């Protein structure tokens, strides 16, 4: 598998490390023309950055010190002038240039023109839609967006957003490739913010509003997220939790928040109202966002509680129990 990454910034380095850690050899290509001395400076800095990241992974016992040198050897850093001779044989190319449409257009047009039509080209953008970027690529059926979460070598999730022209075979190939390196790929339609950025944008802005309104200190707001919100949703998905607590419970809470805060941002979307009207309230009615009809609810809840206990152990906050 010939993997090429275009762009030596944080994301490009992170993806290169991810594949190198998984045993792949990768090419990391500079996306800019530079005088020789400037490229040598970039090369030196990139190698230092990669080493420092691997050294941190060693300190947290993810890898051994003696493996760092071998992992670094799997990443070949190349200058822009070496584009052509390294791209034509690529199986997969990840575009990791800055989030500016002009820059992405230039690079994607170049990649489309100098690569084999079977080469899959993936942008890593978290903002620009795949349907817009695919227009810059020759043979757009081989193009898609793959949004990696930072840091990519630790975060398992990758949001794949195909363009309208993307061939299903190429989507399946990328799913297979990502799973081969221990990632969890998911598919979403071209939409601003994908899934994770869309949810976290709302959450982060609301946290900032709570701070702005002097409801709590920044430290306590973050503790609430880490030990409450974050802990809960590390075990239960958001929609899963709605079904757990009851769709009608969320609807009632949303109505109260909307009225008391005098702000429609807390109001329920239509799908919540529809579920309530049809009595699809979640676990209690065996239907909601999930289909609960063939699930052993007692066993399911027991397994979730066990995961909660495991999470509290990891965070060093296991419940204190004193039996007298």
Describe what this molecule looks like in 3D.
The chain folds into two domains: 185 residues, NAD(P)-binding Rossmann-like Domain (Rossmann fold, 3-Layer(aba) Sandwich), CATH 3.40.50; 119 residues, N-(1-d-carboxylethyl)-l-norvaline Dehydrogenase, domain 2. It is 49% helix and 11% strand. Helix 11 packs across helix 12. It has an eight-stranded mixed β-sheet with strand order 3-2-1-4-5-6-7-8, sandwiched between helices.
Features:
Rossmann fold; N-(1-d-carboxylethyl)-l-norvaline Dehydrogenase, domain 2; eight-stranded mixed beta sheet; 13 helices; globular
Write a short abstract of this structure.
The protein is an alpha/beta fold and 324 residues long. Helices cover 49% and strands 11% of the residues. An eight-stranded mixed sheet has the order 3-2-1-4-5-6-7-8, sandwiched between helices.
């Amino acid at each position: 598998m010939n993997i090429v990454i275009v762009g030596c910034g944080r994301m490009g380095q992170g993806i290169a490390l991810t594949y190198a850690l998984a045993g792949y050899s990768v090419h990391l290509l500079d996306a800019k023309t530079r005088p020789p001395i400037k490229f040598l400076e970039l090369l030196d800095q990139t190698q230092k950055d990669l080493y420092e990241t691997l050294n941190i992974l060693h300190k947290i016992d993810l890898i051994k010190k003696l493996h760092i040198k071998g992992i670094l050897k799997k990443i070949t850093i190349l200058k822009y002038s070496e584009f052509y001779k390294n791209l034509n044989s690529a199986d997969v190319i990840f575009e990791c240039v800055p989030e500016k449409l002009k820059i992405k257009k230039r690079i994607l047009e170049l990649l489309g023109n100098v690569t084999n039509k079977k080469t899959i080209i993936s942008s890593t953008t978290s903002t620009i839609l795949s349907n817009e970027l695919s227009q810059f690529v020759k043979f757009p059926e081989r193009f898609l967006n793959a949004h990696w979460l930072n840091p990519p070598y630790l975060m398992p999730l990758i949001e794949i957003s195909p363009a309208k022209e993307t061939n299903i075979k190429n989507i399946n190939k990328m799913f297979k490739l990502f799973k081969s390196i221990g990632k969890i790929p998911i598919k979403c339609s071209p939409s601003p913010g994908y899934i994770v950025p869309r949810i976290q944008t709302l959450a982060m802005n609301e946290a900032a509003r709570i701070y702005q309104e002097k409801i709590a200190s920044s430290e306590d707001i973050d503790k609430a997220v880490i030990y409450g919100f974050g802990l809960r949703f590390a075990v239960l998905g958001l929609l899963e939790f709605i079904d757990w607590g009851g769709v009608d419970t969320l609807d009632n809470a949303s109505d109260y928040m909307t009225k008391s805060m005098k702000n429609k941002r807390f109001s329920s979307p239509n799908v919540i109202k529809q579920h309530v009207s049809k009595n699809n309230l979640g676990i209690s009615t065996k239907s909601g966002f999930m289909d609960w009809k063939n699930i052993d609810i007692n066993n399911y809840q027991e397994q979730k509680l066990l995961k909660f206990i495991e999470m509290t152990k990891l965070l060093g906050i296991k419940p204190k129990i004193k039996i007298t």
